[in-house]
Backbone:
């Protein structure tokens, strides 16, 4: 029997982890002679009280929703997909090929094609290490890490070779046709006569696809027979196999779904923001997805909230780097502290809470 209620594990553990990370971050800011209170207020003002700040926060959050969901799906099968970066890179390649070589008449059709291209390329890239584990016994963590580097090499090959426009020196494709460009939040605001909302912010309609992905993952994991098999396999592989659940099937399907979600991150960055395929467009979102999944307890709602938090940290960190003397490197350290406390050091918070709830249950 669980000592701690489910709500406490979902709410209190991440909350106290976040508080500890904030306190340590405040000490670091004090150590360099800045005010933690002023820094925190600047982050809130620059992110939550400016429409452009909201736009950037939602743009980052969109990436983290996709990669966080991808890691969460794999977690439910006790698989650690650490290859989100590579799968997103391959997804970007799929988006680039679909947008460049298919004459789309309208963005509403282009986004469907790009989503399918991104999902298929990400699915294939995750399926290869899944096959190596399911059939050959290779560890999924090692193979997915290796495939990140291979994906970077493949993407670099295409961007400096076959997909580079003639006469260009940049490692990038040509701009996508105008018909494939996604409406931004600024464009949508102007439809309602609001001229100054989300000015120049890259958030776009792919955010709504990320929300649909949250609903889809929830239905898959908790309302479908396949989701039941994934969770059963994750709880106990031998017991699931005894009940007739094929381990090869579950490993392959779970990882391919995870890879498809990672690949779809590229819709936001490649088709939505850059409007072309560029090098390093993932910006570490594949790794941030691990922290988002851990903090969100592998539940779509938790992933959504954690992705918004990390979007806030990314945009707030940019505000601090712009308006204070806090160096950008320290902002990365602050983000790392949040990841550390909400991920690797979760038991440091959970253990005292379990003792507290155990004491409250005693007569």
Residues:
């Amino acid at each position: 029997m669980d000592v701690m209620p489910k709500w406490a594990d979902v709410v209190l553990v991440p909350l106290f982890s976040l508080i500890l990370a904030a306190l340590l971050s405040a000490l670091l800011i004090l150590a360099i002679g800045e005010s933690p209170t002023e820094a925190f207020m600047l982050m809130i003002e620059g992110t939550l009280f400016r429409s452009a700040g909201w736009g950037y926060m939602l743009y980052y959050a969109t990436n983290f929703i996709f990669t966080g969901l991808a890691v969460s799906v794999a977690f439910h099968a006790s698989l650690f997909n650490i290859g989100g970066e590579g799968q997103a890179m391959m997804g970007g390649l799929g988006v680039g090929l679909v947008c460049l070589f298919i004459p789309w008449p309208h963005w509403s059709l282009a986004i469907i094609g790009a989503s399918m291209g991104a999902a298929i390329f990400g699915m294939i890239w995750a399926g290869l290490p899944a096959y190596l584990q399911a059939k050959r016994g290779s560890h999924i963590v090692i193979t997915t890490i290796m495939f990140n580097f291979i994906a970077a090499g493949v993407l670099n090959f295409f961007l400096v070779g076959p997909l580079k426009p003639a006469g260009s020196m940049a490692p990038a494709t040509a701009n996508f046709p105008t018909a494939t460009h996604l409406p931004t939040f600024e464009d949508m605001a102007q439809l309602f006569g609001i001229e100054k909302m989300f000015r120049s912010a890259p958030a776009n309609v792919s955010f709504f696809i990320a929300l649909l992905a949250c609903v889809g993952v929830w239905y898959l994991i908790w309302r479908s027979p396949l989701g039941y098999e994934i969770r059963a396999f994750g709880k106990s592989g031998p017991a699931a196999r005894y009940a007739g659940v094929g381990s090869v099937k579950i490993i392959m399907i779970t990882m391919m779904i995870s890879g498809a979600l990672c690949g779809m991150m590229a819709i936001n960055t490649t088709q939505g923001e850059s409007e072309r395929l560029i090098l390093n467009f993932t910006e570490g979102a594949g790794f941030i997805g691990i922290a988002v999944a851990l903090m969100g307890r592998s539940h779509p709602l938790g992933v959504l909230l954690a992705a918004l938090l990390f979007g806030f940290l990314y945009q707030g960190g940019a505000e601090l780097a712009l308006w204070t003397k806090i160096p950008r490197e320290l902002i990365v350290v602050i983000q790392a502290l949040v990841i550390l406390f909400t991920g690797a050091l979760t038991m440091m918070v959970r253990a005292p809470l379990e003792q507290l709830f155990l004491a409250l249950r005693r007569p």
Notes: The mean pLDDT is 90. The CA atoms of residues 74 and 254 lie 6 Å apart. The chain is about 75% helix and 0% strand. The domain at 55-299 is CATH 1.10.3470 (ABC transporter involved in vitamin B12 uptake, BtuC).
